[in-house]
Amino acid sequence: MHRDQEELFRVLADELRPAVNFNFLAVFLYDEASDKIHRPVIEVIAGPGFAIPPDFPAQETITWWTWRHQEAVVIPSREEETRFPRVMELFRTYGVQSSCVLPLSTALRRLGSLAFGLEQPHGYSVDDVRYLSLIADQVALALDNAHRHQEQCQSEEQLRKQKAHFEQLFELAPEAIVLRDSENRILRANREFTELFGFTLEESIGRNISELIVPPGNWQESERLREALNRGERVNTELVRRRKDGTLLDVSFRGARVSVGGGPPEIYGVYRDITEQKRAERALRRSEAYLAEGQRMSHTGSWARSVSTGDVFLSQESFRIFGFDPATHPTLEVVLNRTHPDDREGFRETVMKAIRDRSDFERHFRIILDDGSIRHIRSLGHPVNNAAGELIEFVGTHLDVTEQHQARIALENAFEEIKTLKEQLYQENVALRREIDETSMFEEIVGKSEVLRSVLRQVESVAPTESTVLINGETGTGKELVARAIHNLSPRRNQAFVKLNCASIPTGLLESELFGHERGAFTGAIAQRIGRFELASLGTIFLDEIGEIPLELQPKLLRVLQEREFERLGSSRTLRSEARLIAATNRDLAKMVEEQRFRSDLFYRLNVIPIVMPPLRERPEDVPLLVQHFAELFSRRMNKSIQTIPSETMSAMVHYDWPGNVRELQNVIERAVILSAGSVLRVSARDLRSAGKTGKTSRVELAVKKRDVPLPDREQVLEALKAAEGRVGGAQGAATHLGMKRTTLIAHMKRLGISPRTVISHF
Hints:
Layout: H1 5-16, E1 24-31, E2 36-44, H2 62-69, E3 73-75, H3 85-94, E4 98-105, E5 110-118, H4 126-172, E6 176-180, E7 186-189, H5 191-197, H6 201-204, H7 209-213, H8 219-230, E8 235-242, E9 248-258, E10 266-273, H9 275-298, E11 300-306, E12 312-314, H10 316-322, H11 332-338, H12 341-357, E13 361-368, E14 374-385, E15 391-400, H13 402-438, H14 450-462, E16 469-472, H15 479-488, E17 497-501, H16 507-515, E18 516-517, E19 529-530, H17 532-535, E20 540-544, H18 554-563, E21 565-567, E22 574-576, E23 580-585, H19 589-594, H20 600-606, E24 609-612, H21 623-637, H22 647-655, H23 661-675, H24 691-694, H25 699-705, H26 714-723, H27 734-738, H28 742-752, H29 756-762
Parallel strand pairs: 16-23, 16-24, 17-20, 20-23
Antiparallel strand pairs: 1-2, 1-5, 3-4, 4-5, 6-7, 6-10, 8-9, 9-10, 11-12, 11-15, 13-14, 14-15, 18-19, 21-22
Helix pairs in contact: 21-23
């Protein structure tokens, strides 16, 4: 009748006092799971009672023994008991002499023990034990009933708490929760459902959920989900659903069929708004795509390595760089196996040192792909620590620098080649300068005639000034040579000497050559061009054949001479030039002024200091010096040994009028050196102009006719035939070499007893 343990035991003690002799009555319960003895109730008639210390071992108690063996334990006297020595110490402490302890058990479970104690020894007989055992059985049933009642009450209370807790969770859940029947009609919904979809509970309860939140185009999908849930399947998917205002949103949906209290099955569904998540996922996918494309274009791959597990993560571009199959499980050893043997240990040591020091690292190494090709890699790593400061992983990049490496090697080779070419150019420049030094046409004026010395004295006087110089003279007299001499003797010797032959430039391009042009100034002007006046700004500009400058361009030239200003073609920006002008011409500019083919103001501006170059015919005493100079020059250049110039040859050249002046003389000597077979310089009469071309009989031909020039001797004829390889006539024949007609040479050979066939077989 009593469900409460305390009340049950109080009533039990009252009923047992008249029938059983005891000073204390107690119930001890044993919990096998925790191996602890609990004393829920005790009734004391007299004395201090009885208590078991909390740290007392359960296996040394009488209760544990009775629970284990299911037998009653009777202790007549504590002095005689030896089985439970430590319990007897407790008996002595609390004044207990004798005791009877009976097991409390039901058909379903063991509970503990029912203990009686007396202050006198031998307090319980066999009949008492038998009687008390019957009482213990009844007490066990009552205790079990009370215990079950207590458990039931606790379960009901727990159920009420759980239900209340569930109700709170249902309403406060961050997800939209809806309970519906098998026909998709809403039975219940929480507050988050109304806030997410915009429908009130009154608008939702009893409505078909498809009509409420499913877009019209997704009804078939909703029906398939309903059928799957009715079959007992669990659903976890992502859907598109509609709010009350018609806007669509992405949701995750989890649903399952449940049955409560044996009632009809219902559908339990949970909706979560993942619109922002899906938007973020799409943005992340775009970012990943951009990153992957950026890595592909820059040949840069990313990587991460876990320090604890050693697992390596590689981006798609890293897989491509290393030539790994995407199914490969990458580790540090896999990467090292791909590394060039000469770089492998160094790379391993760099990684291990970075892990020990928890520091950044950078390493250049080579890898060998499956096809045997070698790639150059630059790898960077950075340590990542957790909140506790522990190193958890390394992250970094792989950069394929093969193209940069190849470009650097090509650049180094190009620099090496440039260095070689520069040295070669230097040597060629030295040789060229040596050659120029030896060439009178560019650095030295050869001659000793008084007329030439007069010109040179005038050059020395004019050179230190800034005045404009006009050099007049026939073609080939050395006007450019004099202009260079003036420049070299002037304070401007360290600045540029810029020359331009005005007769060699088409009229339409002459202005661009003189003053320059901008890009697009005229058809074909694809880039800016610097003019000659701008190039020679602080130096000297030499304009040869200045009489060929067209009239429309002469005012601009006059402006440069007077105001030192000009503009490039296609530009309005005024530029200045401090260049000194030296002009040259073989024409009579004064006569051209009279004929209005040359501007008078420009002529007077040019003719500040006139210098007249004498023709070679007016200084015949300079011809031997020039002949000797050119003969030595060309002999050295052609690796020949010209040691003798016959007097008759020299005499012929001295008496020749040289209409082409020094230039013609130079060409004649060069040709003679080429054709001369031995050490004697042979000049053919044909090399000098014939009377048929000039209308006059040359002095050489007259000398030949008068026998001023003797016929060649036998040795000279043989040398000429040897040089001509036995040929008598023709451009390269012996007659040409000797300056004779073919028939004359044949007749002369007959007189000397020389047969051409004999010469050919001999040579």
